[in-house]
Design brief:
2 domains, alpha/beta, 14 helices, 326 residues, Rossmann fold, 14 strands, 5-stranded parallel beta sheet, 20% strand
Length: 326
Amino acid sequence: MDRRHFLGAMAAMATPSIAKAQTASSGRMRKIGWITGQRRASLEPYLAEVRSGLADLGFVEGKTIAIEYRFGDDDLSKVPALAADLVAQDVELIVAQGAAVAILATAQLPVPLVYVTSGDPVVSGLAESLSKPKGAMTGITFMAAEMNGKRLEILRDIKPAMKRLAVIGNPEHPGAEIEFSYARDKASSLGLEMAYYTTRSLPELQAAFKTIADRPVDAMSVFADGFAVQYREQIIAFGMAQKVPVVSGWAVFAQSGALCTYGPKLSSSYRRLSAFVAKILAGAKPADIPVERPTTFELVLNLRSAKQLGLAMPTEVVARADDVID
């Protein structure tokens, strides 16, 4: 990213944008920005949650609040220019999602930044601690590393004879080492032999597939992040071809064919973003608003995949599920 050009593009706009945010009143239309490196279609359900949450707080899109949307269409190199354009539109704050967060966190934006990220905010340098956000930014993380151990417990309930486990994770995802620690410790307590495959690129993922095929495992656990979501269909297809169940953290994996997912209910986290936006528009400083971790979790089972794998889903596991794909 050409950070120098990005900062230059916004320098002349900084003072009026800050002044507008500080003098904003509830009697006029408020304006905020939304920016992501992803495509709109992949996020529309979550955007609907943000809009609904804002409406509940009195910010109705098109009536009391205007939202300027910017999408990178899977090209992160577009993010700086998109952010500069939002600042030029005199938005009062910017909501950033996914990989765009890391780019904007060091860009010295002239307006507050509210973020939603899957990484650990402390490891990634976004905050000193959850209670101490850095700079003029705060937000929500999906990171719930302890869920990696709980998923292995569920997997053992479904497949008691499991002995060998493959874990796939992106080592560049902030907090991946913490996730690995939870998975390793739980695997050890369950008596599982665990092999960890670090995959930060498609070639590394394909190499992991080859090794796993040569050294068969009984199950695969995938650390949830943007990379894993991008290649989830390939990961799940490989698992099904190997007759190996795949588990992960976000419902989109189960919806795409993974045996089960257990982790944050992303729709609830996105809805919580509205509270951050409302507080800042009311005059609160981002540094005074603690970063939030997930508080709502969901277990999603894919019985179609279980049937294809020849696995009988225990009734007690089904009874605990929040959603069942049949």
